[in-house]
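Incident log, structure service

09:12 report received: a user says their structure output differs between two submissions of the same chain.
09:20 pulled the input from the user's history:
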Amino acid sequence: MAEVRVLHVVPDLCVEGGGQSSACFNLALSLVGVCEEVSIFFKKARGVTWLEGAGPITGLNIFPYTGKIFRIPYAIYGIIRSQNINIIHLHGLWLPIFLCAFIAAKIAGIKIVISPHGMLLPWDLRRKKIKKWLAMMVYQGWILRNVDGFIASSEAEHDSIDSLGLKTPIAIIPIAILDSPQYPELDLRPPGFKTALFVGRINHGKGLHLLIEAWAQIRVNVGDRLLIAGKATTEEELSYFDRLTTAVKKHRLESSILFVGLVEGRQKEELFKSASFLVLPTFSENFGMVIAEAMSFGLPVITTHGAPWRDIEVNQCGWWVPIGVKYLTDALADALSKSSRELSEMGARGRELFDRKYESSSVARETNFAYSTYIELPKNK
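09:34 re-ran on a clean worker, output below:
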C-alpha cells in the first residue's frame, strides 16, 4: 500500500464555519499516526477556530494563510515540496481557494481528491444557482473532470457525484466524529421532564421553522423544553432567525423553546448530556455530523429523509421520517411519550451503531486506504 502524505485544503477552520471546517479538522486529527504526513492549509479568517479548543496537537502540520488570493498557488506549491506531499484533499467546491490548490497540485504532479460536503446535492445546487452555473462553466467543471477521486460521505452524495457522468472513482466514507474530551461525569438530565435538542447552523435548510410549528402542535408537559443551539451569521440567516423568534412568540412558546446560541467544547457536551433526544428537521444533508455526535452520547435521534440516515430506522435508535410538519409532530409526540428507560435503550442502540460504523479510527483507516488507492492509480490528465 502506498505511503500517504496528505495536504487538506479548506476555506477556513472557524467554529462558525459549520460542518465543512469541522469535518476537515476532525479527519485530519484522526489521520495523524495513520498517514505518514498530515497537513492542513486554510485561509485564516476572523473568529474562533477549531484549533483553539483542541489543545496541543502533535503530528499535524498547520498552515494558516493570510496573503493575497493570487499568491495561494505559490504558497500551496511550496508546502507540497517542503512536506513531500503526494495527495491533496479539497474540502468543498466553488471557491477560488480550490482552483488555486488544484493548479498547484497539477503543477506539482500529485493526486487530487475532492470531498464535496453536500455541495453537489440538488438542494444545495438550487441555492445561488446562477453563480454556481457560472463557476461550473469557468473553472469548477474543469476541476471535477480532472481530479483523481472523490470521497462521498453517504450514498446520496455518491449518487449526486455519479449523476455528473464522470468516470472518476468514488469512495463512500463517513465523516470522522471524534470522541468528546472526558470531562467528569455529570448527570445533567433533569428529572421529571424531557429536553429535545437541536444543534447546528441557524438557516432555512435545517428546517427549524418546521420544528417550531410541530412543537406548537403537540401537548407539551410543563417542564418539557426544546433547546436550539446554533448561530446565525449571514444577513439571510439573521433574517431567518427573526422569523423563528416571531413564530415562537406567535405560538406563545417562549417558556418551552429556548435559543442558547453557539456552543462548543464542554458547554456542548453538557447540552448533549442534558438532552433526552436530538432533533434535526433538515431539508438536505450530505451526512449530518450532529447525528453521529448525538449517538456517541447515547441519544436517540429524530431526523428527516433529507439526511441519509436510514440506519436510524434499521437499528431502532430513533425516528427517520419524511420532511414535513405532520411527520415531525408525530415523531416528537412519540419521543415525548417514551419513558426515560425506553429512550435510554434507543440511545444505547445508537451508541452501538456509532462504535461499529462511525468511530474516527475506523474512518481514518478507510480514508488512508482510499488515498493509497488513488495514489497508485494512473494519473488523470
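09:41 both user submissions now match this output. Likely a transient worker issue. Closing.
09:42 reviewer note: The chain has two domains: 5-176+359-376, 195-358. The chain is about 45% helix and 15% strand.
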